[in-house]
Amino acid sequence: MYLQRMFSCSRLLARPNALQTFRRAASQGKMPLARAHGKSFAHRSDLRQAKRIVVKLGSAVVTRGDECGLALGRLASIVEQVAVLQNQGREMMIVTSGAVAFGKQRLRHEILLSQSVRQALHSGQNQLKDMSLPVLEARACAAAGQSGLMALYEAMFTQYSTCTAQILVTNLDFHDDQKRRNLNSTLHELLRMNIVPIINTNDAVVPPPEPNSDLQGVNVISIKDNDSLAARLAVEMRADLLIALSDVEGLYDSPPGSDDAKLLDTFYPGDQHSITYGTKSRVGIGGMEAKVKAALWALQGGTSVVIANGTHPKVTGHVITDIVEGKKVGTFFSEVKPAGPTVEQQTEMARSAGRTLASLEPEQRSDIICALADLLTERKDEILSANKKDMEHAASIGRLSPALLKRLSLSSSKLNSLSIGLRQIAVSSQDSVGRVLRRTRVANNLELEQITVPIGVLLVIFESRPDCLPQVSALAIASGNALLLKGGKEAANTNRILHELAQEALSIHGVKDAIQLVSTREEVEDLCRLEKMIDLIIPRGSSQLVRDIQRSAKGIPVLGHSEGICHVYVDHEASVDKAIKIIRDSKCDYPAACNAMETLLVHRDLLRTPVFDQIIDMLRTEHVKIHAGPKFASYLTFSPSEVKSLRTEYGDLECCIEVVDSMQEAVDHIHKYGSSHTDVIVTENEDTAEQFLQQLDSACVFWNASSRFADGYRFGLGAEVGISTARIHARGPVGLEGLLTTKWVLRGEGHTAADFSEQGSMTYLHENLPVAQILPGRRTTS
């Protein structure tokens, strides 16, 4: 086995152009280049540039829960991630614990074995008595475990054609200048040869840590645990990033598990006074306070630091690679404090102001929306100037399609239309929050009400559509919801001025913070992880954006649809004029819309008839590319290109045509291949139409009407935040009503459940009462 490992390492080093290949790839921008060391990274997104990385594995990460033996599953995941980064051209170093635990397992096994042999010899019988294990000394365990730990690392890294080398150090190795230079030289040589150094304190000879030894200035740090060792090593080797993995998610402002403990996404050197530390982990000699001090020392030396959880790979995923990709994992230590609030602080501000917004009178919320409508026209020059900058920048980059550029553009007429739409929302907001939906007299002097309330905090993510911002803001204000907005960077200038106007309108009733625009470098995936702060995510953009958000959202409902595979079924009893009008509008009016037709289903009896010929002629005249479904293709000698999938959203002047034998087959086809968005039947037979409308399980089902009617404005909702294909909460075009939920309010006079028991004196009435309108003084918030 040892010879196999040596052969693997020598074969790796023997590659003549391996290092040259890495350097050439880096020079082409495919891999991170070494950067000038001196300052740490200011933002998480900059961590992608990290070239030299130290990964510190705490005892709780490496060892099993019984502290005897190694957690092989976790270790395998960590090794895989380190190997992946190493093979990307980065320089990886590992500072590991685990020798004591590995040795403890080995020594216990040896002791049990020797005791059983002695007992068997002395007693002459196979039945063993209870055997007590002696207390094992840590240094002896380390001596017994170091070789096994290293052999395990070598075996795992060999699977990824990655060579490793072991280095054992003590505090003296850093205090002696010659030893420190030797260590530095050895590590640099190993990194040059693309070898992963695995470093550990030599626990077999190291003295017990001094209880009060601590950081002693910029140039000196006492190596009393692997946290301080990793920090010292990272600074000594001018590492770009130190990843310290432990058994907690990161740094909390108070001991984890306490009621008010909050995980800190970013920690700044001046924030130490705001932290209350808890007890140290179950194993190891360090604690969170030691980790923070070591991290700050490394940060001062120019190395960025992230403290994260490495004990639950199923929960945290690929924590090391996620950190290097700049994802919001653990606590990031930064010397640069942003000028504005963090996204977590923005969410808390929005929730607090949102509760005040929900408690306002309906007329006050209407006033705010009308004020915003006025500002859109009064300040249109500022808005259009900002939009012009965005348009010019987008045109210079050339990344946006003509359709997206059209969405990005604003005009005076568009702003006037927005203003009119906002006033319609203001009118409809009068009876939204606090409306009594149901009243029941449960018993004498015991009344129950079901009342509409806001959902809470909405996160709306939108692309290339700055006009979405005032629309969604007005709907959030009307429904009393707090709002967190994340717009595309292509509309940054326009979004900024529109958000300022929204907050100006909110200020007239003191709720300016109810709407927040996320302008920091937050990735959408990171925002989707704020499950304790955000109540509903509403994506507005491409189907790919919606799918990405639905995958990323952890514990937060997503309102929307990932696909708009809409069907039009032309029955054999359809009117040819109606069919042509509906198909043309459904496909050609706006092919990129989510409610555009993607599949045309035609009854078999219409094939080779003038009706079918007229439909095909119209599609050709409109330059619609036709793809034949399998059944349709079988009827043709020379057919159009056969469709690759019947579940395709083209989003362009393309569609699939398929043949069905009956209305029931059309329903079955839509259930199998559709996306439950919008589907249409064209027929003059009322019974057939009613069966279609009743049987089809889609958010919108139409008879003799274009699929383009699936729109909040056309439905008379004033505006919409999107179209939902979900089975719960709102479905179809979602307007003001879809942003509300309900709660139950019970008013009694000292009633108890015991009053209604067999021994009690009261009986249930359950009498339905008339539903009143919004009652003054009875408004409630979520």
From TrEMBL:
It comes from the Eukaryota. Residues 342-634 form the Aldehyde dehydrogenase domain. GO terms for cellular component: mitochondrial matrix. Keywords: Amino-acid biosynthesis, ATP-binding, Kinase, Mitochondrion, Multifunctional enzyme, NADP, Nucleotide-binding, Oxidoreductase, Proline biosynthesis, Transferase. Transmembrane segments: none annotated. GO terms for molecular function: ATP binding; glutamate 5-kinase activity; glutamate-5-semialdehyde dehydrogenase activity. Its main location: mitochondrion. GO terms for biological process: L-proline biosynthetic process. Pathway: Amino-acid biosynthesis; L-proline biosynthesis; L-glutamate 5-semialdehyde from L-glutamate: step 1/2; Amino-acid biosynthesis; L-proline biosynthesis; L-glutamate 5-semialdehyde from L-glutamate: step 2/2. SUPFAM superfamilies: ALDH-like, Carbamate kinase-like. It is found in: Mitochondrion matrix. Pfam families: AA_kinase, Aldedh. CDD domains: AAK_P5CS_ProBA (cd04256), ALDH_F18-19_ProA-GPR (cd07079). It catalyses: L-glutamate + ATP = L-glutamyl 5-phosphate + ADP; L-glutamate 5-semialdehyde + phosphate + NADP(+) = L-glutamyl 5-phosphate + NADPH + H(+). Bifunctional enzyme that converts glutamate to glutamate 5-semialdehyde, an intermediate in the biosynthesis of proline, ornithine and arginine. PANTHER family: DELTA-1-PYRROLINE-5-CARBOXYLATE SYNTHASE, GLUTAMATE SEMIALDEHYDE DEHYDROGENASE. HAMAP family: ProA, ProB. Can form homodimers/multimers. This is Delta-1-pyrroline-5-carboxylate synthase. It comes from Culter alburnus (Topmouth culter). The lineage of its organism: Eukaryota, Metazoa, Chordata, Craniata, Vertebrata.
